[in-house]
Structure formats: structure tokens, C-alpha cells
Amino acid sequence: MRKEWMKVVQKLWRTENIVELTLEGELVEEVERPGQFLHVATGEKHVLRRPISIASYDKNNCQLTIIFRVEGKGTKWLSLLSKGDLVDVMGPLGNGFDISRVPLHAEVLVIGGGIGVPPLYGVASEFKKRNLVTKHILGFSSKQDAFLLNEFQKLGETFLTTVDGSLGQKGFVTDVTLPTPDYVFSCGPSVMLRAVKEKYSNSVTYLSLEDRMGCGIGICYACVCSSNHAAHDKKVCVDGPVFLANEVVLT
Amino acid sequence: MRKEWMKVVQKLWRTENIVELTLEGELVEEVERPGQFLHVATGEKHVLRRPISIASYDKNNCQLTIIFRVEGKGTKWLSLLSKGDLVDVMGPLGNGFDISRVPLHAEVLVIGGGIGVPPLYGVASEFKKRNLVTKHILGFSSKQDAFLLNEFQKLGETFLTTVDGSLGQKGFVTDVTLPTPDYVFSCGPSVMLRAVKEKYSNSVTYLSLEDRMGCGIGICYACVCSSNHAAHDKKVCVDGPVFLANEVVLT
Amino acid sequence: MINLAVQLPGLSLKNPIMPASGCFSFGREIGELYDLSKLGAVITKATTQHPRIGNATPRVAESSSGMLNAIGLQNPGVEQVVSEELKRLASYDVPVIVNVAGSSLEEYVEVASVVSKISNVHAIELNISCPNVKDGGIIFGTDALVAAELTKAVVAASSVPVYVKLSPNVTSIVPIAKAIEEAGASGLTMINTLLGMELDRKTGKPILANRTGGLSGPAIKPIAIRLIDEVRRNTSIPIIAMGGVETVQDVIDYLSIGANAVAVGTAHFKNPWICSELIDQLPEALASLGYSSVEQCIGRSHDHEYLLSR
Amino acid sequence: MINLAVQLPGLSLKNPIMPASGCFSFGREIGELYDLSKLGAVITKATTQHPRIGNATPRVAESSSGMLNAIGLQNPGVEQVVSEELKRLASYDVPVIVNVAGSSLEEYVEVASVVSKISNVHAIELNISCPNVKDGGIIFGTDALVAAELTKAVVAASSVPVYVKLSPNVTSIVPIAKAIEEAGASGLTMINTLLGMELDRKTGKPILANRTGGLSGPAIKPIAIRLIDEVRRNTSIPIIAMGGVETVQDVIDYLSIGANAVAVGTAHFKNPWICSELIDQLPEALASLGYSSVEQCIGRSHDHEYLLSR
Ligand SMILES: Cc1cc2nc3c(=O)[nH]c(=O)nc-3n(C[C@H](O)[C@H](O)[C@H](O)COP(=O)(O)OP(=O)(O)OC[C@H]3O[C@@H](n4cnc5c(N)ncnc54)[C@H](O)[C@@H]3O)c2cc1C
Ligand SMILES: Cc1cc2nc3c(=O)[nH]c(=O)nc-3n(C[C@H](O)[C@H](O)[C@H](O)COP(=O)(O)OP(=O)(O)OC[C@H]3O[C@@H](n4cnc5c(N)ncnc54)[C@H](O)[C@@H]3O)c2cc1C
Ligand SMILES: Cc1cc2nc3c(=O)[nH]c(=O)nc-3n(C[C@H](O)[C@H](O)[C@H](O)COP(=O)(O)O)c2cc1C
Ligand SMILES: Cc1cc2nc3c(=O)[nH]c(=O)nc-3n(C[C@H](O)[C@H](O)[C@H](O)COP(=O)(O)O)c2cc1C
Ligand code: FES
Ligand code: FES
User: Fold this and answer.
1) Which segments constitute the FAD-binding FR-type domain (chains A, B) (predicted)?
2) What is the pTM of this model?
């Protein structure tokens, strides 16, 4: 883990309110897995950093991308950065999706909802490098909120859902029914994760959780969640953000 | 008075910690006199603007210059601006130096100390336009803090003092003794203004005062000073910053 | 059409936005920037019986997302406030709330009784919480019994409804608020500033001549929201909220927690047009939440739980 | 050479900088970033008799130049703190101050008595000011008599000096500080957080599951400076200051107003190396004021006036 001023080398509006930034810096060397995240400072008025997942990374060029939706003041601030600007970043943080234990012949289903989609692109890309073809279900509110579609389609069969039916199947990601996969990798709003956990209880299911964070490194106890063993005994920032679905209690 | 995002069109380091910014915007049209000031916002963490004098202005090009010393957080923030940046400015504010009543044959002495020098450059320049040649005494801490020397020398005879003697006469501006002028225009630290008031009690002496400000427009009562008539009956921001020396009580 | 109007005791507000006491003076300067008739109301600078020269300067200092002030109730005294300031404000179609201060019960009563008779004065804001002068009222604002006694006396003397301005510098605000409600106040305004100090980098000494000053601005907003939440759930009279309002989201937050109207102080210093701009932005902000009136937004944090609990 | 050392009851500090309770856990994570022996001291997370699971999440929210937390004293209980956390800290050359919390006098006494016997524990910080749990001690921190009684009991039970952490959520801090001093406390730490609330933009409801939380960060610094000024001028025991420290200038400010050492909390979340960096910067900051030791800087705001007045 490092703290570094990373340089914005590219900025792209993916939708009306979703920005992709490509950042350059030495901490990319330390990235181990898709699903790890950065903790990003957003100006002097904000005492807390913002956790944003690493969507993809390129160790050769010391570059990575983050994709975020403009939600409140911090992401608004980030969205005003331009090429060449420096941004104060800590990372990589968290465990990420461990795909190394997945056998090469396994059936892998990737399920992403909304702004949970970006880290899964890293997952699918890493599988691709290992010649494992993933299937994807991506859910969005509506057509104009959808992004990364082409990118996922290139990596494997991709099913789309939108709440309003403006693109793909109308409904939620769990309304798409496919043969039970061996592994599920998922990230998205907690209501979606709960539904995914239930629907894919017979698969090995990895979920990336979200929680309000303070430090991002395990010292503040802001981001706790409960395992099956004890209440509040896991920290999303260091024990997660990725957990096996049947290990954690989803609230 | 307007509130406007002015554009930085030039930035110049005058000394190691004194910056000159040339700003462009429509509020230049409203500038009436040298000695008026701008109230400049310095980032989201700061709820107060910073009062900075207009050093010179060019109505034809809608440009003006401010010259400030990096003191604390706000001026530090300003010093990080670059050409092309926009800065949130309110102004012009205050009365400024009224030179219109000075007869053309009058003897005018301009006395500036440290960061009080910039608005006096505007005074001397305006007199020059009216073909009145001013004399100047400029005081600094030491040689490396001195600035605008050439500019003043072009406008009239210029005497220099430094506290450590590294440039000009060693001592204070009031250690230079010249024939009693008809008019004195002065700006600088309050201890200097007190000495100037005393030394030039037989001249018509205009002093530009400094005080911590809130609003800059007369609504908060932060910047009061006392006249000879009553305590705290003047506001530096609207009744000043320029006062006749014998009208105000200097503290 | 979004209905911005709010009805409060003595105050028929076009909209819930008004300048806070001391950050608007008596409206002369801001009246040159936009038409004050646009405002929900105006709250004047503190008015005392006799003219006051206030504290020595420096009177303001800055802190992270906040500022300290120790103006010390400088004002021209009630006579001149009536003859000049209130008279000028009468030319606008806007209800005036006069902020009344004093160093004795008698002074409060006297000033309230005089100003409340002026026709454009629709309410009094009783300033029992100014932290910046020794005899400036904070003694009246930190003790429930004293606050109630003063409120009772001023309510009796005033021809218009009395709103009492609460101090946040207390261990428990609820007993004080309740005592004031029972004493007959028509409403509460909150919060006044928190007592703070800033030091000069070079000397290490306090920047303010008064040593301490009142902290205002966005820094104090979470404290104000918490205090208003406590008071809202334990009293029934209307609340005019203030503390760090800069954006229309801040206005929505105060309405949500149960305030009936919102005053803007410190933000005037960076942007004297702030109230006018917030009034323009409010309809869209309410609409985006699905509301068609200010009234619908008031208290949404509570799910009406506080209404039921009474 | 600038002398950074500070001698306090029980604590021989290499320098006056230490992490504040709850913003450093027990040092495991930050110990991976730099050598903790560099610190003046460490203050641990709150420790209670039995393990506590703390409050529901969300537990943090942000505000302008500040944040709210309602962790709720989550900790593994004194047994595990002793067997694991304090043991690990013993491998560093740094005095440990254990922050002790509880819901009854008996619990405080029990925990203090246990931890104070551990050899690397050089002092106890009595947390009578946690605003985030109903039974978390703030009741002990807002009443002078109760605070004094608790202090007395813990001082009697503890084998090391006891520092008491004051709550800023009070009308008058001086009577409480004085009562604690008289009850035998060796020092004071101040301030704990101010009670606040933040609302969710979309729902209008409190963000924190606990509804309210403690406000920390630069926003509260002027309040902390003012409270320390009051307490410094009215008590004689040392003060460890905290509240919004981010820069070495903040450290200088707290020393100037009379604090003997300075703790850093919230700033760890943006920069976990903050204490180490401040320690590196302190000599130059002191030198630029003409001081050759920390001791010379302590209390410079007062011109020794407060020493004379005692
Ligand atoms: C491990 C992890 C990975 C994430 N990855 C991404 C990503 O790749 N792309 C993306 O768009 N978003 C991601 N998020 C959510 C993102 O952190 C929030 O949208 C963001 O913090 C909102 O900040 P703001 O200042 O715009 O909102 P504000 O509401 O102004 O933020 C106020 C505070 O609340 C926190 N906060 C608000 N919403 C959330 C949230 N949903 N989750 C966590 N904290 C929140 C902020 O961090 C900040 O501390 C991730 C969250 C986590 C925990
Ligand atoms: C009418 C007027 C004209 C001025 N013109 C100039 C100029 O042309 N060039 C220049 O360099 N300086 C000028 N000053 C002084 C300038 O305003 C301060 O140096 C500046 O405000 C310091 O801000 P800061 O954030 O760097 O310092 P900080 O100490 O961080 O500021 C904290 C607060 O104190 C106020 N403050 C601090 N020092 C002063 C001061 N000396 N006077 C007034 N307020 C202060 C700041 O405005 C701010 O509100 C002028 C002041 C006034 C009143
Ligand atoms: C410069 C200044 C002067 C003030 N004067 C008064 C006053 O005279 N009477 C009063 O009741 N409150 C006074 N206040 C307090 C404000 O009305 C308000 O309660 C407080 O500043 C919080 O709101 P804000 O954060 O929007 O400024 C003053 C505040 C400031 C900043
Ligand atoms: C996340 C968090 C947890 C805290 N936990 C404790 C605690 O367990 N015990 C305690 O006495 N203070 C606790 N505090 C208060 C801090 O020790 C400190 O008094 C306060 O935050 C002010 O300092 P700061 O502004 O530097 O954070 C906590 C603060 C934060 C932000
Ligand atoms: S964010 Fe601090 S422990 Fe996880
Ligand atoms: S700065 Fe507000 S009255 Fe002058």
C-alpha cells in the first residue's frame, strides 16, 4: 500500500454521470487482483477519502482505470479533474477477487449492477488472460445508465437487464436464469447482492460489499460486517471488500 | 460592485513571496480609483474572502493587477493559481484614493511600506496621466523584499529605505526627510501609518488602513475604526480603506 | 408550481429563506443588490436600548469551513433603529424580525416593547445567546429558569410573537427549549454560534481582541442539525434554523429535520446574493424530491414519528 | 538541536506527538507503515471489560472539514487487549496510554486496575466522554460530581497515572476540570468529539445507524482551543490536546495555548503517516519561532499570565 500523487492521463465520460479516469503511478506495481480499491482524496474540505474500485490495470505502463458515478461532493470534485492533474491516492487496498483457485474448466458467471460493474471488468479480463470464457449479467436502471457493454461482450456472452426495460430484459439481474454456474463473481447494490446470494446458493459465490469507510486500512472500525461466526468481526476494507457469500451476513 | 469569475491572464513572482496576478473581467469597468480593492475567494474551505488592493487597472483591456504577499492559507492558495485559471472575485470595493481634488501644481509625496506599496503605484500612475510628477518613499524589510522599484522610478524621484540597510537608506520610511509636501498618500503597516500621520501633520495626508474583514461591503461590522467624532463609527470596507489622517484614530 | 409559502406565528412567509441576524445588518447594503421583497423575511442585527460601540478589533478570524466573530452587539440603539432602519425596511413587502439584545431583563423588555409596536415588525427574535459580550445575554440562554423568566417578561411586553434564539453552548438544550416554550414563546431560532478561539501564527496569541468569538459557518452544521433534531422531537413550536447554510441542499436538510424556515448567516460574506439565489433554487430542489410544497418537506427525517410521539 | 522531549506524570515522551484514541486502533496496521518507537506515545482504542460489538453501520459520515463517527466502543475486551494488543505494542520503545471505557464505575475500575499493571502501560486515559453509546461514559463526563467520584475510584485502583478525557458537550467545562483535578487525576486530555448529525440527501434521514455521532476534524479546532484555554487558566495538571490537528501549525497552536502534548485523530484517515510526518516537521517549526525546545513553546499564548495567576 502506498500514498501517491497519481497523474490523470485520460478522462472519459462513460454516461451522463459516469466518469472513467486513467491514472498513472507507481502504486500500480502493487496491484494484485481485480476488486482491490483505491482510497482517493477529494479536496481540502473533505477529511475522508473515497473508496473507488480499480476497474482495470496495466502494470507495464503503470496505469489503471477507475470508473465512478457522480454521487455527492467528493465524486463531483473528482469529475472536475482534467488530464494532467494530480490526485492524492492511497492503495491498492483490500483483498480483491481471488480467481487463482478457479479451475480452468469451470463455469464462471459474472453479475454486476450499476456502479458495481467496473471491478468485474477486471475479473472478466483476468479470466480471459487465463483463457477462461466468462458469462456476464449486467443490470442498469435504464439504457442511458449502461456502460462497458462492448467491453464485456468481447470477453464472453453478456446478458443485460434494465429496470425500465429500455435495454435488454426488463427487470433485475436475478431475473435472468442460466444454468447454475460453478462460480459467481458479483458486485452491486446490497439489495442485489442479497438476491444473488440467495439465487446462487449452490455456486461458489464471491460478493464485493460496499460500506461507508473511514480509514480504508483497518484502524477505525467504520466498515465492519458480520460473519456467520460473530457480529462485526470482519472489516470490509481489509478483510474484504470481497467475501464468500456464505461467510457473511448481508444486511 | 460585481461578483465575477475573473481570468488569470498573467502571473509573475515579484519577489520570493510576492505574486502579481493580472486578472481580466468586466468588473474592471467599474473601477473608479486607485486604492479600491477586490474581495477574493480562496477555495471551498475558506468562508471568508481576502481583501487585496487593485494595484493598477486598464479599462480598455478589462484587466487589472493585484500584488500580494504569501502570508497564510488564502494567499498561499492564490499563489498556486496559473494562467487561464478562474478566480471568484467581488469588487471593486471601497472608496480608494481620491486624487481629483489635488491641484495640478501641488507637491505630492507617496509613501509605501512593504505590501502597502501596490495600491500606491496606481496613485502615482494616475497622477502621471494628469502630468503631475510625484515623489516616492518606499520602505521594505530588506533588499530581497523590494519590488516595483523601476516602475516607481519611472514615475518620479524615488527614495528607498530598508530596515536592515541592504538597499537605500537604513531605517524606516519616516527616516527620509523631504520638504513638507502639500499632499501625502500612504499605505503600509499600521505602525508606519501612525508615524506618517505624525510626521506629515501639516500636509493633507491620506492613509489606506488595513483591518480584518468579513463581508467587505458594510454588513458585518468587522472592520470598524474610530473617527475623531465617535468610536467605531467608520467601516474600513465602505468608508475607507482610505481616510484623511486627521479624521481617524489610529490604533 | 411549487408552493414555497410557510405560515408561522406572526409571519406569513413567501418562502422559508431569510438572512440571519448580524449577517445582513439592516438591509441597506443588500437592498442595493436585489429587491428585499423577494425574501421570506429579514432578521435584523441585534438591537439594544442604547447605542453600543461593540468590541475592539480584530473582530473576525477564520477557521476551517468556519469563522469566529466577536462584533459585540455594535448597533445604533433602538431609537435610531426605529427611526431609520425599520423605516427604510418598511418600503419593502417583507416581514421584519427584530433581533433584540440586552444586559438586563428590563432592557430586553423595553426594546421589545418599543420595536414590536412598529407596523412592519412582525416578530421579535430574543437574543439570549450572544457569546461575545459579557453582559450580552448568554447568561440568559444557558439556564432554563432564567431563560423562561426572561421569555415570559418579553412575551408580556411585546405586541408581536416572540421567537427565542437558543445557544448551542449547553450540556442539554431540551430542558431550556421546553422551559421557553412553556413560558409562551411562539417559536425558536437556532443555533447561535459556538464559542471558539483562533490563534495568531506569529504571536501565538488570540487573533480576536475579545480573545474568544462565536464559531459559525459550515463547520457547525452537524451540531445544529443534531440540536434541532433534539428540540424538534421535544417541543411543538416552530423552529427557524441556521448554521452553515451555503447550498439549497443545506436548506433541504434543515427542513427535513423539522425546521419551518431557514436563515442564512456567514454565507453572505462570500456571496451577498445568497438568499436570493437559494430562493430561486428551492423549487427545483423540492420537486426533485417529489414535493410540491415546502410544508411537505418539513420534518421528513422523522417519518412523522415526532408528531405521533406528542 | 531542538529538544522535543516532554516529561509528564508517568510519561517520558521523546516528542509531544501521539495518535488519539480510536484513530489508530492498537497500532498493528500503522506499525506496518513506520516504526512506532518514533512516536511520543500511543493512545489505544477504548477498552472495556467485555468485548463489545459496537453500533450498527453506517458508522461514519462526513461534514465540511469534519466527520461524524459512532463506532460505539467496539473492542475485543480487556483480556484480549492485554494478551494480544498490549503485548505486541511492548515490542516498541514507546509508552502506551490505554483508553479505558465502561458503563459503570465498577467496570472502569476493573479495566483500569487490570491494564495499569501491564509494564508498557504508562498511563490511563479515562474516557468519560464518548457520545456514541448510551452507557458509554458521557454521563460521567457532563457532571462535575459524578466525574470526580469516578476519577477518585479509578485513581485508587490504577497503578499508573490517570488522565481524564473531557467532553466538550457541556455548558461550563472549568468546574468539571477542577473537580477532576481535585479528585487526583494526573492530567487531562481534551477534547473528545462534539455531538452531531448528518442527513442522507435522498431520504432525509440520519446517515448514521446510531442517528448521532461525534464530530471531529479541523471543524472543531477553534472550539478545542477555546476549551483548552479555559481549562489551562484554571487548573495546573498537564493537558494532552486533540481536535482537528492536520499540520505542524496546528501542533504549535495547541502547545501555544498551553497543552503539554498533542494527539492526532481524524487526520490519520487521510494520511496514516501523519504522526511520523509531524514529528519530522516539528523541529523546524519550533526553530522558526526562535525556540530550542518544545517546553519553551508551551503556553506562549499566555505570556505566563496564567502561571502568575495561580
Ligand atoms: C470498496 C468500495 C468500492 C467502491 N467502488 C466504486 C466504484 O468503482 N465506482 C463508484 O462509482 N463507486 C464506488 N464505490 C462507492 C463510492 O465510494 C461512493 O459513491 C463515494 O464514496 C461517494 O462519495 P461522494 O463524495 O460523491 O458522496 P457523498 O455522499 O458526498 O459522500 C459523503 C461520505 O459518504 C461516503 N459514501 C457515500 N456513498 C457511499 C457508498 N455508496 N459507499 C461507500 N461510501 C459512501 C463517502 O465516501 C463520503 O465519506 C465503492 C465503495 C466501496 C466501499
Ligand atoms: C483593504 C485591504 C487591502 C489589502 N491589500 C493588500 C494587497 O494589495 N496585497 C497584499 O499582499 N495584502 C493586502 N492586504 C492584506 C491581505 O488582505 C492579507 O494579507 C490576507 O487577507 C491574508 O490572507 P491569508 O489567508 O494568506 O492569511 P491568513 O492569516 O490565513 O488569513 C486568515 C484570515 O485573516 C485575514 N487576515 C490575515 N492577515 C490580514 C491582514 N494583514 N489584513 C487583513 N486581513 C488579514 C484574512 O483575510 C483571513 O480572513 C489588504 C488588506 C486590506 C484590508
Ligand atoms: C458576523 C456575525 C454577526 C452576528 N451577529 C448576531 C447578532 O447580532 N445577533 C444574533 O442573534 N446572532 C448573530 N450572529 C449569529 C448568526 O445569526 C447565526 O446564528 C450564526 O452565525 C449561525 O449561522 P451561519 O453559520 O449561517 O452564520 C452573528 C453571526 C456572525 C457571523
Ligand atoms: C473513528 C473515531 C473513533 C474514536 N474512538 C474513540 C475512542 O474509542 N475513545 C476516545 O476516547 N475517543 C475516541 N475518538 C475521539 C478522538 O480520540 C479525538 O478525541 C477526537 O476525534 C478529536 O480529535 P481529531 O479531530 O484529531 O479526530 C474517536 C474518534 C474517531 C474519529
Ligand atoms: S474503513 Fe476504517 S476499518 Fe475499515
Ligand atoms: S468587512 Fe463587513 S463591515 Fe466591513
Assistant:
1) 1-99
2) 0.96
